[in-house]
Every structure is written in structure tokens, then in C-alpha cells.
């Protein structure tokens, strides 16, 4: 059965963190739905413009189909995600079904605000770690604690994306995809 992942984009998201995850997951055969917090193109933190597959409202109608939600960081993207009540609803619905919640860079602060990191090991961008209310905040590039995955920054996006592939599809798929990508894992 094909795995399905939701990647929400808010204005000011970090391009490398979102696009790397979308690309690597799609190479692995994962069905990725990119949902915008608003209709139309979303301007990222470096002023590039990206057209989501649908809006968050559309994604909310299909929450039960997703195996994972991945929150990209960036500013003001992270603040925009945290301020959107639909993101909280999506995260809570997936967590209620024991699905994976993942966040990179400043976006783990969104999970922290929702209480997801309580009692868990987590990481994030060094500039945002003080805002993480977690069991233990660590200086590691990618951290998996149960069904929660966190990562540090644009520089760790490839490792983060491959860890998500491993969790959804297994290590064999990571090896297969990396034959073409040639990332250092």
C-alpha cells in the first residue's frame, strides 16, 4: 500500500527543507500532498514561489489518509504554521492515529507548542532550541523518538528526508534511492 505524507506550506517556509523532503519522498514512491495555508502560490523565505497541490482545507477533509505530516521550518513560515489552527488540528488527528509527526529547523517549536515534544528527545535549529519544551533537547542532526522526528536545519534536510523514507519504506528503499542521489548518510 502506498504511503501518504502531508507537507503544509505557509508563507516564508524554508525552500531547502520543504523541497528536499518532497523530492526524496516522491523518489521513494511515497505519495506527497503539498498543502498551502492559502490558495495559490506560496512565497518562501528566499522569495521563490511554489504552487501547492491543494489547500489545508482540502487536506483536512482527507486527514485519515495520511501516514505522516512534515513541517518545514523557515521564518516567518514556522510562525505562520504555528498560528494556523488547522495545523494543530492536523497534527492532533495524525497523533491520535499514532502516525508520524516530523519537523525541521524552527518547526519543532510548532510541535512543542502543541505539547507533542513533552517527555521526548528532540532537536531543532540552534536558534530555536530554547523554545523547545521537550524531555531532552539534544544537539543531533536528526532525532527519532517514537513517532516524532525532528531535525536541525536546511543543512540536515537530506538526512532528515532519508530518515523519513526509512521509517515509511525501510532501509532497502533508502539504499535504492541513494544510488541515484549519492548523499552522505
Provide an overview of this structure.
The chain is α/β, with parallel strands linked by helices. It has one domain (4-175): Class I glutamine amidotransferase (GATase) domain (Rossmann fold, 3-Layer(aba) Sandwich). Helices cover 36% and strands 21% of the residues. It has helices at 15-27, 56-60, 77-83, 85-96, 108-113, 157-169, 171-181, and strands at 4-9, 31-36, 42-43, 49-50, 54-55, 68-71, 100-104, 121-122, 136-137, 142-145, 148-151. The strands form three sheets. It has a seven-stranded mixed sheet, with helices on both faces. A two-stranded antiparallel sheet has the order 3-4. The longest helix has 13 residues, at 15-27. The model has no long low-confidence stretch (mean pLDDT 97).
The tally of structural domains comes to 1
Q: Residue-averaged pLDDT, rounded? A: 97
| Model regions low in confidence, pLDDT < 50 over at least 5 residues | none
Principal-axis shape? globular
Task: Figure out the total of helices.
Answer: 7
Strand order of the largest sheet: 5-2-1-6-7-11-10
CATH C-level = Alpha Beta
Q: Whole-Å distance between the termini?
A: 26 Å
Quaternary state of this entry equals single chain
Amino acid at each position: 500500500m502506498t504511503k501518504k505524507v502531508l507537507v503544509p506550506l505557509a508563507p516564508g517556509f524554508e525552500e531547502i527543507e520543504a523541497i528536499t523532503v518532497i523530492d526524496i519522498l516522491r523518489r521513494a514512491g511515497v505519495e506527497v500532498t503539498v498543502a498551502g495555508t492559502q490558495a495559490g502560490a506560496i512565497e518562501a523565505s528566499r522569495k521563490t514561489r511554489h504552487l501547492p497541490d491543494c489547500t489545508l482545507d482540502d487536506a483536512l477533509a482527507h486527514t485519515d489518509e495520511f501516514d505522516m505530516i512534515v513541517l518545514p521550518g523557515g521564518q516567518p513560515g514556522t510562525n505562520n504554521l504555528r498560528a494556523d489552527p488547522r495545523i494543530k488540528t492536523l497534527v492532533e488527528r495524525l497523533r491520535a492515529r499514532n502516525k508520524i509527526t516530523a519537523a525541521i529547523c524552527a518547526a519543532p517549536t510548532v510541535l512543542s507548542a502543541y505539547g507533542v515534544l513533552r517527555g521526548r528527545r528532540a532537536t531543532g535549529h540552534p536558534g530555536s532550541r530554547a523554545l523547545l519544551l521537550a524531555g531532552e533537547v539534544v544537539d543531533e542532526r536528526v532525532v527519532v523518538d517514537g513517532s516524532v522526528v525532528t531535525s536541525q536545519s536546511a543543512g540536515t534536510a537530506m538526512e532528515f528526508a532519508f530518515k523519513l523514507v526509512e521509517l515509511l519504506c525501510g532501509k532497502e528503499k533508502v539504499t535504492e534511492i541513494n544510488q541515484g542521489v549519492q548523499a552522505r548518510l
